[in-house]
Write the structure tokens for this entry.
Amino acid sequence: MVDMEEMISSAVDRNLYRFLEELCDFLRIPSVSARSEHREDMVRASSWLRDQLGRLNIETQIYTDYGHPLVYGSYCPYADKPTILIYGHYDVQPEDPVELWETPPFDPSIRDGSIYARGATDDKGQLFTWIKALEVLRATSGRIPVNVKILIEGEEEIGSPNLHRFLVDYKKRVSANVIVISDGSKYSRDTPAITYGLRGLSYLEIEVIGPQRDLHSGVYGGIVKNPLNALVEILAKLTDEKGQITIPGFYEDVVPLEPWEREEMEKLALKEDEVRDQLGVDSLFGEEGFSALERKTARPTLDINGIWGGYQGEGAKTVIPSKAGAKLSMRLVPNQSHQKIDRLASDFIKSLTPPGVKVYVKQLHGTDPVIVPRNLKEMEIAIKAIKKGFGKEPVFIREGGSIPVVVSFSRLLNIQPILLLGWGNPDDGPHGPNEHFSIENFKGGIKTAAFLLEELGKS
């Protein structure tokens, strides 16, 4: 009897070079959703994906009425097998700062066992493992063993502002028994993981307005409130020296970590010296009373993501700017609501407005946190598939980042089995310069995805 596991592994190994070449073609498309100049690149990337799925005889459609093009494919020939919905995104973060990239961000480079490019790990490379897994299953057994739907959006990196509307309009079309998402990382280079918790996000933009024009600081300094000074004064009051967020009511809905979670996290304790070395810092910082792993995955945070105002060029220019601004993100944990946090933060920031300036707060995007049940049969199947694909049993982790669509899948489609299976390494550098994706993880991800679909077809 032919061993299916051996056939899948052999097919992935045999075709790996071609799969990498195809991934490089995908990565060359600068599908940056946040910038209007890349609108045609978004169209090009969605068409590229449609062609990839079409080669697998997956009926595919591109929807253009929901922001950037949205790709949906369906292969559902079975009445007696489960339906698996594969979700991913083809949009990527802006490449800035370009000068810190060792090679051009949209000209993929393979070195040191990894492929370097914007989107390599977040999320083009990880998404592509599922497409190649479907191809491998067709090549080895002549069929895909389960009903498959695949949903690939182009707006994840800007908060998925239109995806919920699509899910509402096409709720029946995208319904499924299980959802799989690969858009994250393993626990460590040597330890694969299944993520059962994601933090939510509240993202705000603050604008401080002062005089009607920029002013000479020698002429007007001392009689006009400087908007930049006002901005940094406000920002400095949002957290204290112990890492606590000072917004009134911010913590009132936070669900404390369960004792068993703290015990498991203690077993997985971060090697803080290694983290410091990787990050190039001499110490770690955060909320008192919690370990580094708890703080980075299961406690709320507040970070200033950008700040601007005044003169930014070379040399000196003595100016009081007319306006200043900042972008602010807050990561949320169960049971915090991003809408409530938006309101609490906005009200508090405005209450800190000093005389002489006006302060405006805009909500850019947000999502609620989510916890996935761990005692599901699909979780057991995923554990076995990962052990086959990566050679080691996974650990369960909570992730510090956010995937907005998970909340919509959970609440709107009422689907519990949401398998969050990240193939990346923690130091892949998503959103930063020199983002990369390990070729071994690419290969392991394809094998695991194929094993998982094969086993789900038997369940």
Notes: The mean pLDDT is 95. The first strand starts at residue 59 and ends at 63. The domain at 4-198+369-458 is CATH 3.40.630.10 (Aminopeptidase).
